[in-house]
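Researcher: Please predict.
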Amino acid sequence: MNAPQQPPATADLDDAAIPYLPRGVRLQDDRVRGIRVLQAPERAMQLDAVGDAILSELDGETGLGALIDRLAQKYDAPRDQIAEDVRGFLNGLIDRRMVFVRGRE
């Protein structure tokens, strides 16, 4: 018998949430491979252009709603689509403890 599936955690990330990179986690250029990497103690994640664009906007002060608005305007994309992508991406990193959100650490 299958266990009931949990609803996605995206509902927890409202527009007032403030995502940030915790101490020890940083964006870095891998010049040898020509890629952007999110590094944390004893692990690293290669980023595509979308992940890099999202994480490059994190400043630890800007709310998620403003971040989504900025990305939607910058890339001339529908806000709803950007919001879904950003929340899904950040939730994956929150689960891996590579992104924190004020009040949830």
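Model: DSSP finds three helices and five strands in the chain.
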